[in-house]
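Hello K.,

You asked for the raw outputs rather than the summary table, so here they are, unedited. I folded two proteins back to back in the same session to keep the settings identical. This is the first:
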Amino acid sequence: MYLSAKIKSDTFTKALIGGIFIAIMSQISIPMNPVPFTLQTLSILLTSAVLGASGSVSAVCLYLTAGACGLPVFANFSGGISALIGPTGGYLIGFIPLAYIIGKLTEKFGTKDILVTYVIGMCGVAVLMLCGYLQLAYFIGFEKAYLFGVAPFLGIECLKLAIFSLIASRK
């Protein structure tokens, strides 16, 4: 009984630390309209490589729950349910499949090979971008959603993936 409670406590602690890490990295932000540039994606990539699928999804869910409850953990110290249901909410919700995909793939393939790690990251980021794009398109249309919510981030995301691959392959 004690061992089971300790394991659950350790898992929660790791998820909580992961959620706090994501919240901190969310504040490193360059405002852009309508989607800001942040280091959230990089933090979730790294958290997922360390905690695996279950732990990283828990970390992201804690982060999203804190933000939905109004804590200022989202980019530019914002929070509230409106962030999740607004134009950029698809990116926030997309963090859940991002965490799961990266966690599962790194559990399966590891992170020793930098190229494999980069491709793993690309898989997760592609799903994240799709989630964000679709919700943004609901508000501003498909063409504008691509122009403002995808295209400006393609190069930046490639850079984040390179950083992720370099760091994760060293663990």
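The second followed immediately with the same parameters:
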Amino acid sequence: MTLSLFSQRQLGKKEREAYNETDPARLSFRLTESCSTQTEKVKAIFFWITENIAYYRPVAPGWKLKNRVVFWEEEEREGKVLPSLTDRVATKVLKEKTAVCEGYARLFKSLCEHAGIRAELITGYARTDFNKAHANFRSNHTWNAVYIDSSWFLLDVTWASGYIAMPSGDFVKQYDSGYFLSSPAKFIQHHYPDDTRWTLLAEMPVPGEFLYMPFRQRSYSKYFIQSYLPSRGLIEAVTGDTIHIELQLDLAKRNMTVSPDSLSELLVQQAAPSFASVKPAAIKGDRVTYDFPVTNTGIQWLYVMYNEDVVLRYKLNIRKTKDGIAAN
């Protein structure tokens, strides 16, 4: 499929008139009614968002609540029948014309779905120029995958909209077509998903950040984890070894009644034989310990579970013997 770039395209009259529309279904129809292909519809939605939504910069404690479910708790308590979370967030974004990455991604998903196009929210690690690998290798961003003409494609409407100027922290609107239906090989250079199937690559790459630390999954922050061992994300082992992992949690805040994320079940059920998961062997005070017996060299990725959530991911390099020579 050939895709034309549209980095210099100007909004048409219909798109400009849609600026004040706050209903996702009506906006989706207005943007796509004259489009004849799925690609044209996705392009129209993507470009409109980049031109009309500005990135919201935090200015006070609690800013992360913006565009999220807490905005709707009062209405839920009143017993109202609500639209989906994605549509509610999309409506909020359209009213305020600002969003953080999740707001951008949910707006894109909502508009696509109202246009009859499948779209998914993808969470994971986004590498920026000012990331420090030893500190920020964690789930910190949200983007999308979209299904066009029987194939999945990756895109990031937040990053395509502009950038944050440093050190002022101001949002600068500047369209970047490089984040629209980018090739998986290019996208993985700066987007590493929680669910590795969304790399859309046959072989999952190993980001260099694993040399510094394990990947902290989206659920990591739910349990107030203070520290973990091993501290490096790459574990060398030999068949017959037992890998020991330890977490330290803030005991006063630990809550085993928290509902696990739906993503966790999907991750640990991945069909690939190179994945394995490990659950706590013991919980004593603020310490949670794990033991993972190494039985074969085919395991390459180890998910660390807590309360049925995946909290950490380690990369394993397993050999048959210490000298790397298979036994007879």
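The longest strand covers residues 309-319.

Happy to rerun anything if the numbers look odd on your end.

Regards,
P.
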